[in-house]
């Protein structure tokens, strides 16, 4: 196999290089060169496919792309940037695997093959996290200043990880919720893996909100990670495998919608039909699944929620890129926010710009991510909100981190849209 | 030390922030193209942020005789920022820190990297506007607009970039910082170097600051869409509107091929059997345009329009304009390469030009779509093709040549707003004659004795022909 085989070369020709994507690109803004713009990256993939530049030389520009896909929204010729990017990641990943050390392979193996796909293992990891928080080890680490010895990126995340539920609490969750009156929709809830490990409370609130709006909600057992992190890291085979297992699992249930509260996962679920389009026995099934999958805000907008409580606060909204640019869900979260009594919504400038979270980008490319976050926080501060609302766990963590970095935690908090809606409905 | 190393060393002395001198291959590739055709690797990219830096770079380049190509955001459709002879790409896009509006003098003072649309937005805060509106204004830099003398739909009523430039700061190819014009509308001191530099496509110097004229912002606008079965009748209708004393801010035309392309791409319910759709926008005092828009509609009816709709609200107007906005994505769906021309003819010759375009389309078997600014004769014949298909591209070359010839024969010009650059260079004599081109060359030689400033543009090289087949 040729080294560059698999690059989406033909797709690069649909780029007419007009440059309309430049102002939408967060990394072009912070890194200040065309090399880190969508137009630049598409050209580099084309050059690599033509053998005019080596794969090593395009590696950094590709890895430093957030994959937020804001460029696709503004593209006048509908270039499939996501497809071009993921093809480059897959080719780079394949090359790296052929060359990389045993140690690096083990790390990747643990991360992508063991941790994310298997909920049991992620649950274990979150148990450890709980243990770390509860036993006082966390306090000790902070007190002794040991925390400061950790690399800056890990130390900063430590502060913002929420209180993790205890293992016994986690097991208590009901597997089916039924509404009081007539059932409006039957919902299969997609819990997600990172979402459920770190923000299981948000998942719980999501299900209760759906219930309060008249839905029957089931948690389909044996569901898997959506595969987004794999796909974004070039592990396309693993992503396909996870997609197939999810499709199989959900085929066992009858429901109207598969609903999730994580913009990034939702985007991946919405692209299963692209992912599996070349596999005849899966293409139709993937299409069926994608047709059912929808973000929670879309369903909540169709329901009558018991929004009794006033929330007299100034709120700003940071959309999840994958929810907006890939799922194309835009208006529903805004309308839901506006439906809360006494709430004042101040939209910020450059709302469409990614916050720099982007899956595990903020861990892998910490410095670059923080520059993007600092730009975001400048815009946040201009509208002086008391609450920053997001719709995806990664964005939520990043916003919490931004609040920490700006040292405004005494006056600003970051929450998931679902948390605010639950508060307004007196759901705890 | 070899030639390149020597230049690199000198550039590092000139630009103290070495992060702004790019030499990695992935960076060089990223500055090798624009929105036109072809890609050429530079040896260096220098991201300048002051006239002093530009001056130092130009002095080095002039001494070492290395080409310099200025570049904004490279949305050019004519090849202006392509470093066709290699050398240094001078990127001004980071230099966007100055945007001053002086409402008393009704001017804007801007640094070269400022995005065009930001100037209009800033002026709007004072009830003023910066009128030139190239469709790329959300991405194009003002320096790029100045160098190419860009226009847009509003050109019909408001003119083009050159009509709004009062003064410039320019660094000459020899590295001297000069000022042209000033802050006043009236200024006849000496030769009008301002107008010479505007539209010179970066071949005479580097624009480092501009003083731009602002005009009062019209308080309201109204849009009308009209459908014609017959293209010639739509042309007559346009002439009738203009001769009746109404100057619309925009008259945009879509031909049948673009209507069909849009309907196939995103059905809006447009009539695919119609030969032309016109979108007409009026701006001005609300009472005046309310009256005028009715008159325009009457003219359309009189000239046999099938159907005419006046937008009752801004939202409705946006909905009508959607059809025009969808043309670009719609036409590249079948094939990826778009050769976008801007040959312009006198308004009265539009129907004749359309007839010639139709013949060219059939003769060479190319996919030709025509849309654009019908009010000022600045149509955009676009050929949709695939640059990987050599045989097709040869036919495209021939068709493009004939489009240029037709425009000139009808008393028009090669380029209304995109510029000559690389693609139209070989047709210069056709329009200007041998001596006309020679006088331009002499100006070029006087300004740039070492021929380092954006070489390979405007002037054809001996025996140069249009080549689109790679």
Write up what this structure looks like.
The complex is a heterodimer of chains A (428) and B (470). Chain A has 428 residues and is α/β, with parallel strands linked by helices. Chain A has four domains: 9-99, Alpha-helical ferredoxin (Fumarate Reductase Iron-sulfur Protein, Chain B, domain 2); 104-165, no CATH class; 168-300; 306-424, Rossmann fold. Chain A is built from 26 helices and nine strands. Chain A has helices at residues 9-12, 26-31, 38-49, 55-63, 70-74, 81-99, 102-115, 119-134, 137-143, 146-149, 152-160, 167-171, 194-198, 200-212, 228-232, 236-251, 263-269, 272-275, 280-292, 296-302, 321-326, 331-339, 361-364, 366-382, 393-406, 417-424, and strands at 176-177, 185-189, 215-219, 257-260, 293-295, 314-317, 344-345, 387-390, 413-416. In chain A, strand 8, helix 25 (393-406) and strand 9 (413-416) form a beta-alpha-beta unit. The longest helix of chain A is centred in the N-terminal third of the chain and has 19 residues, at 81-99. Chain A is globular. The mean pLDDT of chain A is 88. Chain B has 470 residues and is of the alpha+beta class. Chain B folds into four domains: 3-91, Uridine Diphospho-n-acetylenolpyruvylglucosamine Reductase, domain 2, CATH 3.30.43.10; 99-216, Uridine Diphospho-n-acetylenolpyruvylglucosamine Reductase, domain 3 (2-Layer Sandwich); 220-329, Alpha-Beta Plaits, CATH 3.30.70.3450; 334-409, Alpha-Beta Plaits (2-Layer Sandwich). Helices cover 36% and strands 20% of the residues of chain B. Chain B has 15 helices and 18 strands. Chain B has a seven-stranded antiparallel beta sheet with strand order 15-12-14-13-17-18-16, sandwiched between helices. The longest helix of chain B is centred in the C-terminal third of the chain and has 20 residues, at 390-409. The two termini of chain B are 36 Å apart. The relative contact order of chain B is 0.11. The model of chain B has no long low-confidence stretch (mean pLDDT 94).
């Amino acid at each position: 196999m040729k080294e560059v085989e698999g690059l989406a070369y033909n797709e690069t020709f649909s780029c007419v290089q007009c440059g309309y994507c430049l102002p939408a690109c967060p990394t072009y803004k912070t890194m200040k060169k065309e090399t880190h713009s969508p137009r630049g990256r598409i050209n580099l993939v084309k050059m690599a496919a033509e053998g005019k530049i080596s794969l090593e030389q395009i590696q950094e520009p590709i890895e430093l792309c957030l994959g937020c896909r804001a460029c696709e929204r503004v593209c006048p010729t509908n270039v499939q940037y996501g497809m071009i990017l993921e093809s480059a990641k897959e080719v780079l990943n394949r090359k790296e695997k052929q060359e990389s050390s045993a140690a690096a392979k083990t790390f990747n193996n643990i991360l992508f093959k063991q941790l994310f796909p298997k909920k049991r293992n992620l649950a274990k990891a979150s148990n450890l996290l709980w243990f770390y928080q509860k036993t006082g080890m966390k306090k000790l680490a902070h007190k002794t200043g040991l925390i400061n010895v950790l690399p800056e990126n890990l130390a900063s995340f430590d502060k913002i990880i929420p209180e993790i539920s205890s293992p016994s609490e986690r097991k208590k969750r009901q597997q089916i919720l039924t509404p009081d009156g007539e059932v409006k929709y039957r919902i299969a809830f997609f819990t997600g893996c990172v979402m459920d490990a770190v923000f299981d409370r948000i998942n719980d609130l999501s299900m209760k909100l759906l219930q309060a709006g008249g839905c029957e909600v089931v948690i389909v057992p044996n569901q898997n990670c959506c595969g987004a992190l794999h796909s974004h890291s070039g592990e396309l085979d693993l992503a396909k495998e996870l997609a197939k297992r999810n499709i199989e699992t959900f085929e066992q249930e009858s429901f109207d919608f598969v609903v999730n509260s994580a913009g990034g996962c939702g985007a991946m679920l919405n692209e299963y039909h692209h992912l599996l389009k070349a596999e005849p026995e899966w293409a139709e099934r993937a299409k069926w699944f994608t047709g059912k999958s929808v973000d929670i805000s879309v369903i909540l907008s169709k329901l009558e929620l018991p929004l009794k409580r006033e929330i007299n606060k100034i709120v700003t909204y940071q959309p999840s890129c994958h929810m907006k640019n890939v799922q194309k869900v835009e208006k529903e979260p805004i309308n839901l926010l506006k439906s809360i009594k006494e709430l004042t919504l101040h939209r910020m400038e450059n709302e469409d710009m990614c916050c720099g979270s982007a899956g595990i980008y903020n861990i892998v490319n910490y410095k670059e991510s923080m520059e993007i976050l600092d730009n975001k926080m400048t815009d946040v501060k201009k509208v002086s909100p008391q609450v920053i609302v997001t719709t995806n766990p990664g964005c939520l963590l990043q916003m919490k981190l931004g609040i920490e970095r700006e040292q405004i935690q005494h006056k600003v908090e970051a929450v998931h849209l679902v948390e605010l809606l639950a508060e307004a409905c007196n759901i705890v | 030390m070899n030639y390149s190393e020597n230049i690199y060393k000198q550039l590092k002395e000139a630009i103290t922030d070495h992060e702004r001198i790019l030499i990695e291959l992935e960076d060089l590739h990223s500055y090798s193209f624009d929105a036109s055709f072809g890609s050429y690797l530079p040896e260096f990219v220098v991201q300048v942020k002051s006239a002093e830096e530009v001056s130092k770079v130009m002095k080095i380049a002039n001494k070492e005789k290395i080409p310099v190509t200025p570049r904004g955001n490279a949305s050019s459709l004519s090849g202006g920022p392509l470093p066709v002879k290699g050398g240094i790409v001078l990127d001004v896009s980071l230099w966007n820190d100055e945007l001053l509006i002086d409402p008393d003098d009704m001017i804007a003072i801007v640094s070269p990297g400022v995005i065009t649309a930001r100037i209009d937005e800033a002026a709007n805060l004072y009830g003023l506007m910066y009128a030139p509106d190239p469709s790329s204004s959300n991405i194009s830099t003002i320096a790029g607009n100045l160098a190419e003398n860009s226009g847009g739909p509003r050109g019909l009523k408001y003119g083009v970039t050159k009509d709004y430039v009062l003064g410039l700061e320019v660094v000459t190819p020899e590295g001297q910082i000069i000022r042209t014009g000033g802050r006043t509308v009236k200024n006849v001191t000496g030769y009008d170097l301002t107008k010479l530099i505007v539209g010179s496509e970066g071949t005479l110097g580097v624009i480092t600051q501009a003083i731009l004229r602002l005009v009062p912002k019209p308080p309201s606008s109204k849009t009308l869409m009209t459908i014609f079965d017959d293209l010639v009748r739509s042309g007559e209708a346009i002439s009738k509107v203009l001769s009746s004393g109404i100057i619309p801010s925009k008259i945009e035309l879509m031909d049948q091929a673009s209507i069909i392309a849009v309907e196939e791409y995103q059905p809006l319910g447009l009539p695919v059997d119609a030969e032309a759709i016109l979108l007409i926008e009026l701006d001005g005092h609300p009472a005046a345009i309310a009256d005028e828009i009715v008159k325009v509609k009457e003219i359309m009816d009189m000239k046999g329009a099938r159907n005419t709709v006046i937008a009752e609200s801004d939202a409705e107007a946006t909905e009508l304009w959607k059809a025009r906005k969808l043309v670009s994505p719609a036409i590249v769906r079948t094939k990826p390469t778009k050769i976008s021309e801007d040959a312009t003819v006198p308004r009265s010759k539009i129907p004749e030009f359309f007839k010639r375009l139709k013949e060219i389309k059939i003769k060479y078997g190319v996919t030709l779509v025509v849309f654009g600014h019908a009010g000022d004769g600045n149509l955009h014949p676009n050929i949709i093709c695939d640059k990987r298909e050599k045989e097709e591209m040869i036919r495209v070359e021939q068709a493009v040549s004939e489009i240029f010839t037709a425009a000139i024969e009808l008393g028009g010009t090669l380029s209304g707003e995109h510029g000559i650059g690389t693609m139209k260079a070989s047709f210069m004599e056709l329009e200007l004659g041998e001596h006309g081109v020679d006088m331009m060359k002499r100006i070029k030689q006087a300004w740039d004795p070492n021929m380092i400033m954006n070489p390979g543009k405007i002037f054809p090289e001996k025996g140069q022909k249009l080549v689109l087949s790679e």
